Structure formats: structure tokens, C-alpha cells
Amino acid sequence: MAEYKGIKGFQIQTRSEDPGPTEVQPGDFYYNSSTGQFKTINAGGAPIGTWSSGGNMNTARSYLAGFGSQTSAIAASGLATTRVTNVEEYNGSSWTEIADVSNALNHRAGAGITAPNGILIGGGSPSPSPRGRNVVEVWDGSSWTEVAEIGAARYGIAASGTSTAALGSGGYDYPGGVGNVGLTESWNGSAWTELNDLNSARHYGSQVGPYTAALRAAGYPSPTKALTESWDGTSWTEVGDMNTGRAGICSGSGDQTSMIVAGVPNATPAALVEAWDGTSWAEVAENATQRQSLAGGRVSSTAAVIFGGQRPGSPERKNETEEWNAAAFVIKTVTTS
Amino acid sequence: MAYKYCTATNWGKNFFTHEERKQFHLSGHPGEVWVVSDNLYGDQWISKVSGAIKSKDEAQAIVTGEIEAAQAAWDALSAEEQERNPRPTLYNLP
User: Fold this and answer.
1) Same domain for A38 and A117?
2) pLDDT at A2 over 90
3) Which residue on chain A is closest to B11 by alpha carbon?
4) pLDDT above 80 (res A96)
5) Does the residue A175 lie in any domain?
6) Beta carbons of A295 and B53 less than 8 angstroms apart
7) CA separation (Å) from A236 to A107, A167, A201?
8) Based on the domain organization, do A277 and A153 belong to the same domain?
9) Total domains present in chain A
């Protein structure tokens, strides 16, 4: 009988146990001598991701700001029974109260890739209008400092980047304020610079990526709910629409080539989640509890975290956290049947 | 797909795990109502979280009551706040 090496020119790798994440890549094929099985490495990523419950926040709230990662995140300010200054830090399993911000606002935009460094941009104060604020606060891991204000007071901005290099886009304040805008401003650690507007003015939605290469998805009002725009450091370009528009604040994590967005549109009781692969959006596994006006970590599309929020229209604020994980690959046993 | 219904309080970390989400359908609804696949894994999860089993009608009544309370709260909001938020809508559990 011909041997595999004779046909293909090389031998199949034999392993005594399945490989770890750094040892293989999709397309690899091997024989597991312990189980007597041939196995393949198939592509992973968002399509195979799932949600699990994380630690509950101490203060249930919606319209909060968030930044950081699945193991190092910040939940700041927002709306509990009233607007709050509370800030909590997540370590991957539990939340701890840390120093408060100076301004009790909701609809603030958060940007930052780890808990020790982040920035909160704009926000909304109680009625009467105009309610938008231009305040900016920076977190250095131990205290909050108010820094230079954004050019136009507004809330519902989507932001990404870091505490020293951030990008904020869109926003809202009406009546008496700027209205629904596509304003884009960048932060260099000391000052804000106004750049080219979004193609479609909107507020809410979610944004990820550095200030030179960002992706902004969803927003309000109609018909911008499903729009996605990509930022190249100079201007915005419209790319593929989401499958389901999301009018409220949703939570995005990842970068320009790989993003996951959780947070429901208004009209469905399902907790729809979509993943961006650099070209198009696809629905992936739903999170367990439907919510909008939530926040989350911003760094990764394969290890994300969402927290807080509320059911659409409901005054019931949430303290629940959910964690998203999607392995880079999946091992499949080869069968002949 | 057949489902079971229960109420349970989400205690946080590991209330449900990635592995469990792969094994059965799980969705949370108002009133701490959970819809769970009617299979062995779903039964094990209900036991783990000390879920109180409900009939579908009982679970639906809890959800509907919660949403109606939310609708009443929404109706009391100012016009500006109502514009920014959708009115909660009743829906049927699967």
C-alpha cells in the first residue's frame, strides 16, 4: 500500500496531544497518537465565539462610558436613578469602585485600551436643553483630570483611541445646541483639532480603532442606523452596512479590520450581535440579555466585554457583565463517514 | 426547539459559561426570566443556578408584567426623553 509520504512528498505531523494556540494555524493537519485520530485546524474567530457572564457592577446604570479590555476595563458615570459620578474598574472577574469623575453626566464617550489610561468626552446633563457638555476628563490610573474641552458641546459622541491620541465623531444636542452632527475631532494629548465630518451626521453608535484608522458603526436617527464608516486619518468612507440597524448606544470592540458590536436595535427582543471582518458584517452568537445604552471594552473582537445598559425603553438599569471570547482556531477530528 | 422556563438571579461571573452557551440555548428576559433549551445541559444549568421552574404561561405573565410596568414608566417621561427612547414593546417568549 502506498504511504502518504510517497504520495504527498512529506509525512503527516504526529502529536501526542492537541496543540496550543501558538503552535498551529488554520489549515494544519496532524495525527494525535494518544487518541488515534487525524485532526485539522479550522479557522476560528467571531463565527465560533460565545458569551459568558462576568462579574456584576456595583452600580447598575445605563448611558455609561466604557473603555479598556476584557481583563482591564473602566465603567464611568452614566445614569442610575440619577446621573452619577461613580467609576468602577473590572479585572476580568469583579468590579471595584475607584476615584469618581468630577462631572455627573450620561452619554459620555470613552476611549482607551487599558484601564489605567482613558478619556471621557462630552456628555449630557439634565434637562432643560441644551444639555450637551464639552467637558473632557482623562484617567491616568489614579485620578481624573479635566483637560481641554472639545470644540462643540454635545453628547452621544462615538470615540476610540487612547488618552493621548483619541478620535471623537458625531454627537447631538438639540434644541438650542449643535443638533445632530457629523463633527470629527482628534485629541493629541493637549488639544483638540476639528477634522473632516462623517459622511452621514449621527450620534450614538460605536467606534473602534486608533485615531489614524477607525471604524464607526450604527447610529441615530434614521436612516443612519446601519451605516458604517471607515476613517483613514483624514476622511471618512462609507463601507458595508450592518445587517440590523442599531439606533441606540451599542458597544463595539476591535479595530478597523475586525469588530464586534453588541447592543440591540429598538424593535427586536433579540440580543443581536454582529461581527465585521474588514469587508462585511455577519450575525454571530447573541449575548444572553437584551440591552441598549450599554458600554464595553474597546480593544478586541475576539475577547470583548460589555456591561451595564437597559432594556430598550425600560427604566430598569443593568449591572450585568458579559464576556465574549472567540478562539483563533478550532480543532476538528477527521471522520470518514 | 423545546424550551423550559425559569426565574433565577444572575450572580455574575460564571452564572453562565462559554461552555454552557455552546451546549444549549439561553436567553434572559425581564423579571429574571430565563428561557433554556429543554435538554440535559439545560436541566443541569437550571439546577446550578437554583432556577425556579415556571410554565411558559407563568413566565410570559412575568415578562408581560415587567414590560407593562416599563411602558407605564415610559409614558410618564417628558416628550424629549420619549423621543430619545423607544417605548417598550410586548413580545412573546419563544
Assistant:
1) no
2) no
3) A56
4) yes
5) yes
6) no
7) 23, 12, 12
8) yes
9) 2
For residue A234, the model assigns a pLDDT of: 97
Q: Is A86 part of any domain?
A: yes
- Do A161 and A71 share a structural domain? yes
Percent helix, strand, coil in chain B, to 5, is 45, 20, 40
Q: What is the pLDDT along chain B (94 residues), one digit of tens a residue?
A: 899 999 999 999 999 999 999 999 999 999 999 999 999 999 999 999 999 999 999 999 999 999 999 899 889 988 877 876 778 889 999 9
**Chain B residues with CB-CB distance to A56 below 8 A:** 10-12
Chain A nearest CA to B65, separation (Å): 12
Q: Which of A53, A271, A312 sits opposite B14 (nearest CB)?
A: A53
Cβ neighbour number for residue A159 with a 10 Å cutoff: 32
Assess whether A39 and A145 both reside in one domain: no
CA distance A197 to A160: 16
Question: Do B12 and A54 count as a contact with CB atoms less than 8 A apart?
Answer: yes
Q: Are residues A38 and A55 in the same domain?
A: no
Q: Compute the mean pLDDT over every residue in chain B, rounded to the nearest whole number.
A: 93
Give the pLDDT mean for A226-253.
93
> Average of pLDDT values for A128-156?
94
Contact A286 B73 (CB under 8 A): no
Same domain, A71 and A195: yes
| Cβ <8 Å between B78 and A127 | yes
What are the distances in angstroms from CA B51 to CA A198, A220, B15, B47, B59?
A: 48, 38, 11, 6, 12
Q: Is A333 among the domain residues?
A: no
Instruction: Tell me if the pTM is above 0.80.
Output: yes
Q: Measured between alpha carbons, how far is residue A76 from residues A149, A150, A242, A316 in Å?
A: 18, 19, 28, 18
Q: Which residue of A has its CA nearest to B28?
A: A289
Query: Which range among A35-39, A139-143, A156-160 shows the weakest confidence by mean pLDDT?
Result: A35-39
How does residue A219 score in pLDDT terms, banded at 50, 70 and 90? very high
Q: What is the mean pLDDT of residues A161-177?
A: 93
* A29 and A67 assigned to the same domain: no
Structural domain that includes position A10: 4-43
Q: Are residues A122 and A202 in the same domain?
A: yes
